[in-house]
Amino acid sequence: MEQPNEFISFLVFDPPSWSRQVNYSEVEIRGRSEPHVFYSSTGPKIWSFELHLFAGDVGSARTVRQQELFIESLIMPDYGALPGQTSAVAKPPHRARIRIKQMLDVVGTLRDLRVDYLRPYEGVTGFPYIVKVGFTMHAQRLYGQEAPLGFADVRRMLSRGQGVQ
Asked: Quick one: the chain helix, strand, coil %, rounded to 5?
């Protein structure tokens, strides 16, 4: 199991939200009045986050910029040569872990970065004291869970009165 080696702490004003898309294909079958519906695929659970990064002291607005750049570095790809190759190619996306107390502990890839600079600004450097950062996370799995439960398993556990995490 991987252990994260860097982290940032932040204040969340709005709780995260999530969405998920299930794709079904409709096929017209000769002799039937309605189309036959086939399950095609299920997209990942997409979590949306909006955080506020704060600078604590006068002259420390630079740390807000460092936190913003850290989040951006998780979203952007790294480039390097693969074994046996000399040209640089984009490496697989970084995996990140987001934990909100007992509500959420998920591993996935960050995407769709939005940054808003809010007032006031530090007079010498020009960096803002407050930065609102929004991004989405395409969840791969719950942290510590090797294989995701199927929804039939979830319904079975709920019908027995067992908790599901």
From this structure: 15, 40, 45
